[in-house]
Design goal:
Elements lengths: L7 E7 L12 H10 L4 E6 L4 E5 L2 E5 L3 E6 L6 H11 L4 E9 L11 H8 L5 E6 L7 E6 L11 E7 L3 H7 L6 H7 L2 H4 L4 E6 L5 E7 L2 E8 L6 E6 L3 H12 L3 E7 L4 H8 L5 E9 L5 E8 L21
Antiparallel strand pairs: 1-5, 1-6, 2-3, 3-4, 4-5, 6-8, 7-8, 9-13, 9-14, 10-11, 11-12, 12-13, 14-16, 15-16
Helix pairs in contact: 1-2, 7-8
Length: 320
């Protein structure tokens, strides 16, 4: 059974003097915004500074002055952006960033990055670029082209792990696996102690968790199937420091790092990435909106022959 775990992501900052996303916008608005991209809200948690909504396809986080939504599967996230603009007006937007990574089966998606950018630029002028090689792991980023400048301490960390080890895949696809079992397996208490958690175990496979503490957040999304395993982490907590724990649990054959405004990226990765992994791609770019973006793809080099993958000729079309 295949599921496209690769996410699309939108972050929208608003002019706080015009709008408070926590105080002026209802949960019904967010529910409709999520429906527009072909997902739905499953549950939510909140504190004084953040609302976190767990979605059928990933997550939505809302703070007073900005919101962040990630969706996977065959969602069309630009639909949600259009809904936001239709309801609240483009003038409420202080800055917008749209990000999309390469998919396993891009041809099954309702749109490509180019389609998405054409729709977004009907409302917002912007710049687009690719981080990473086109024939390998990469991320596309589109950002609004205006006078916005990001604060230097506005940092985000993303990890994308591919082809997790056999033991991890077997554990995460066990029948009857409970949320507490997955929390323990992923060592969440060690990664994020004292965070408020909201998680969901999908059937037959899959797991999502949102975690918040004050303005800090972490979200993890697990697609554990052996043929297309993919696990993503995103947080404003320094995930590079936590890499040794994450890699020890998952032992992926490759993983990507994408960080915003981490000026010590090289120093941190030299310390935290095991020497077994080799960097295939390393991209650094200072965007005109002030964000310093670092992207790196790491692989475990194959040391011995493996067997070819055999498909059923009358199986799912995306495999052929």
């Amino acid at each position: 059974m295949f599921f496209e775990g690769s996410e699309k992501k939108v972050e929208i900052l608003v002019h706080n003097e015009k709008l408070s996303l926590l105080n002026d916008v209802s949960d019904a608005f967010w529910a409709e915004l999520v429906i527009r991209c072909n997902a739905k809200i499953l549950s939510s948690i909140r504190n004084a500074e953040c609302k976190a909504f767990l979605l059928s396809e990933s997550s939505l986080f809302v703070w007073d002055n900005y919101f962040l939504i990630l969706t996977c599967g065959e969602t069309n996230l630009v639909n949600s952006v259009e809904y936001f603009i239709e309801q609240l007006g483009v003038d409420t937007i202080k800055h917008l960033t749209y990000q999309r990574k390469n998919e396993y089966y891009a041809h099954a998606q309702p749109s490509c990055f180019g389609d998405d950018v054409k729709r977004l630029t009907k409302y917002i002028p912007g710049k687009a670029m690719r981080f990473g090689a086109m024939d390998s792991h990469h991320n596309f980023i589109f950002h609004q082209d205006n006078d916005f400048k990001a604060a230097t301490d506005d940092k985000t960390y993303e990890i994308f792990a591919y082809q997790i080890c056999h033991d991890a895949s077997n554990h995460l696809t066990r029948h009857g696996l409970a949320a507490n079992d997955i929390r323990e397996f992923l060592k969440l208490e060690q990664l994020i102690p004292d965070f408020q958690l909201d998680d969901f175990v999908f059937q037959p496979y899959g797991y999502s968790v949102n975690a918040i503490r004050g303005r800090q957040y972490l979200t993890i999304h697990v697609t554990p199937q052996a043929d297309s395993s993919y696990i993503s982490f995103e947080s404003n907590v320094n995930l590079i420091d936590l890499l040794p724990i994450i890699l020890d649990v998952l032992k992926p054959s490759s993983f990507d790092l994408l960080c915003y405004n981490e000026t010590q990226f090289q120093t941190l990765t030299d310390k935290s990435v095991p020497q077994d992994y080799v960097s295939q791609s390393l991209v650094q770019q200072k965007l005109t909106n002030g964000f310093l973006v670092n992207f790196a793809n790491y692989i475990l080099p194959t040391q011995q022959f493996t067997q070819a993958t055999v498909f059923e000729v009358d199986g799912e079309n995306h495999e052929l």
